[in-house]
Amino acid sequence: MRVMGLDVGSKTIGVAISDAFGWTAQGLTTLKWNENDFTTANQSIAAIISEYEVSEIVIGLPKHMNGTIGERGEISQKYAEYLTDKFKVKTILWDERLSTMAAERVLLEADVSRDKRRKVIDKMAAVMILQGYLNGKQ
């Protein structure tokens, strides 16, 4: 059983998956979706859950720096509830403050071009979210 990490944005969802032992997170893909219609990612999410035998989904919870939850956080909370109901998989909300900025910094330090960064930033943020969760469990 593996853990899937999601960085939920308005147009894309970054996806990461843990190794079989739950020690490390690897970037998997970036899904295109419409946040106004949660079903638009169902087929892809269902395929990943099945292929990797996902037992938990960790969803990044964007919070303001003062700890409050805004509109983006509320959407993540609603999507977590939706995934639990739809796929009968445990969902965990994980504080993702600065995960996208950390992913951007890693990619900049690796000298990844702006165009390539744009293509992988959501997947990298999902890795940061999932790895943070996995580290917190150990």
Automatic annotation (TrEMBL):
GO cellular component terms, A-Z? cytosol
Q: Which keywords label this protein?
A: Cytoplasm, Hydrolase, Nuclease, Ribosome biogenesis
Has UniProt tagged this entry with the keyword Mitochondrion?
A: no
Q: Where is the YqgF/RNase H-like domain?
A: 1-103
Q: Which Gene3D superfamilies match?
A: YqgF/RNase H-like domain
Cellular compartments annotated: Cytoplasm
- SUPFAM superfamilies in UniProt: Ribonuclease H-like
User: Keyword Hydrolase, does the record have it?
Assistant: yes
Q: Which GO terms describe its biological process?
A: rRNA 5'-end processing
State any single GO MF term.
nuclease activity
Can you tell which superkingdom this protein's organism belongs to? Bacteria
Q: What class of enzyme is it?
A: hydrolase
Q: Which HAMAP family match?
A: Nuclease_YqgF
The enzyme's E.C. designation: 3.1.-.-
Cite a single Pfam family from the UniProt record. RuvX
Name assigned to this protein = Putative pre-16S rRNA nuclease
Chief location of this protein within or outside the cell: cytoplasm
SMART domains xrefs: YqgFc (SM00732)
Q: Which family does it belong to?
A: Belongs to the YqgF HJR family.
| Family matches, as InterPro entries | RNaseH-like_sf (IPR012337), YqgF (IPR005227), YqgF/RNaseH-like_dom (IPR006641), YqgF/RNaseH-like_dom_sf (IPR037027)
Biological role:
Could be a nuclease involved in processing of the 5'-end of pre-16S rRNA.
